[in-house]
Amino acid sequence: MEVLFDLREGLRAMVTKTGLEILGAMLEEDRTALVGPRYGRLEERGAYRAGSVPGELVLGGRRVSVRRPRVRSLEGRELSLPTYEAFRRDDPLAEHVVAQMVRGVSTRDYEAGLEKVGEGVEARGVHKSAVSRFFVCQTQAKVAAFLSRPLRDLDLPVLMLDGIEFAGHLLVVALGIDAEGNKHVLGIREGSTENAEVGKALLSDLVQRGLDAGRWRLVAIDGSKALHRAVWEVFGKSAVIQRCQLHKIRNVLGHLPKGKHGLVRSVMREAYRCGDGALARTKLLALAARLRREHPGAAASLREGLEETLTVLVLALPEVLRRSLATTNAIESLFSMVRTYARNVKRWRDGAMALRWAGTGVLEAGKRFHRLKGHRQIPLLIEALRCQAAQLEVA
Question: What is the largest CA-CA distance in the chain?
Answer without folding.
Answer: 103
